[in-house]
Amino acid sequence: MFIVTAEQMRAVDEHTIHKLGIPAASLMENAGRSIAEEVIRLCREDDANRRSEQHGCWNKNGKRAHTGPGDRPAHGGDIIADPALVMEQPGDQQWYMLIGKGNNGGDGLVAARHLVEAGLGVTLVYADAPDALRGEAAVQRDAAAQLGIPALVHGREAVDFSRCTGIVDALLGTGSRGAPRGSYAALIAAANDSGKPVVSADVPSGLNADTGEVYEPCIQARVTVCLALLKRGLVQYPGASAAGRIVVRSIGIPARLAPEHGPSVRLLTEEVLRSALRVDTGRLRAPDGHKGTYGHVLLAAGSLPMSGAGLLSAKAALRAGCGLATWALPAALLPHVIGTVPELMLAAAADGDSGEWNAASADAVLRLAESRDVLATGPGLGRFKGDTDWLRRLWQHSDRPLVIDADALNMLADAGPTAPRDWGKRSAATILTPHPGEMGRLLGMSTPEVQRDRIEHAARYAREQGVTLVLKGARTVIATPSGEAYINTTGHAGMATGGAGDVLTGIIAGLLAQGLSAEQAAAFGVFLHGQAGERAALLRGDPASLLAGDIVDAL
Ligand SMILES: NC(=O)C1=CN([C@@H]2O[C@H](COP(=O)(O)OP(=O)(O)OC[C@H]3O[C@@H](n4cnc5c(N)ncnc54)[C@H](O)[C@@H]3O)[C@@H](O)[C@H]2O)[C@H](O)CC1
Ligand SMILES: [K+]
After folding, report:
1. What is the pLDDT of residues 315-326, one digit of tens each?
2. Annotation-wise, does 107 bind a ligand?
3. Are residues 17 and 113 in the same domain?
């Protein structure tokens, strides 16, 4: 499923209308009908829930215990009214349609016609004077007027939401700029305060369709009927929360036009992993495979106060399926971790008996890397004197795929102008796995600034720096040097726990060691990490009690 910006959507719309010759009126008709169908689906769901609460008329497997009028063809015999637009007691439903002056409003007017056709009560609530509508929206305004659909104009007549059963938000769509103003703001606030279910056309009004930032006020939707292509603002928080259930409805615009008019950003699903990224999600093992077949990870990580980070990361690499893993750690720590993960090989790095890393160990790490397939560093490293030079030696003299996380990212940020301008020149791939704070330090901006447009910041950094970038957080963004981006949807809030990032680093390194490319290992690693977190949270029952180790065990 492609994810687009408002500008990209507009360009795809233009292409569809002016190059393919699909009339804008058809698109709007399809859009409005889709919205009406989702309103009716919501009404049916709520009716069914009410009935099951009242009469328990659903048997144990959730099927209706008896056939209701809705189950029989509405006209008896084989003639069936449009099944998507039939309701049992439509008359009970009174829906207020909030109509903006743009094409989003046009969609709402089309939906109004279809809901009236299905027998629901409908009242139009114009945010602006109806004569402010132009083009296709004006055509729909006139059709609604000719059909005698009741209409109120905000500011002229009182709008009492207590009289309605639901609200369609067709105020602002991809043409919205900044915080809602005037009557738009008033209607959004009143709709939210009414406590009635809101179905939003395309995007909740008050949401930045590109970044997911919510303005004040912003519609809190029960359902968002996203038209044609998924908008970026719906897959990043807090926008994703304001949207409620997101239903992407085709309206006749070919999805494959999206990458022709902007960057290729997709929802990361197992199907995308298999098709676009060509990952063998079945993770088949060759019958004649041996440890060497599946690669050897070297992890330079851990320090006295954070030895566990190294352990979690190294164990996760093994769980991700690499054949061998060596954990390089400060010499003083080694005796204390012997046998904790018997499958793990350990290598002492000179530490002057401090249990901390020191810059002199860079060459030892490079020597170890020569007989390993992947070098990962960062988890639990801590900061130490000369650490940026230590990291610089690793990236300058190692020809292994490199995974840089946690404190190693902070060292990179401190390297400032001496940091590589283009990692793409390295002979092997580089993957960075920052959380938003580390990303902010790399970009020289605050965390909130990073979070305000996650996809854009990640995609630009990856493209400019020639790295594969994993910007962690809810809906992790995976961005590639060639400009593609993927938005992960697996995961669980319970994963917000110390060490979860160390586990992800290990998983990605473990997949790289098995020969996956940087973008395959990053995308599949994030996907698996999230799935393991979901499973671990389920096993624990109480997600708040989740530990990073549970994620490793659930892998
Ligand atoms: N072929 C198509 O383009 C299709 C479009 N679809 C729907 O159309 C909207 C995009 O329509 P557009 O007219 O470009 O923008 P809006 O309807 O969102 O218009 C908003 C309207 O309101 C004014 N405005 C903008 N920002 C604010 C604000 N912050 N406060 C108050 N008022 C504001 C501005 O003047 C605009 O005119 C898209 O989302 C779809 O819903 C159809 O899907 C079919 C194809
Ligand atoms: K809307």
Report:
1. 999 999 999 999
2. yes
3. yes
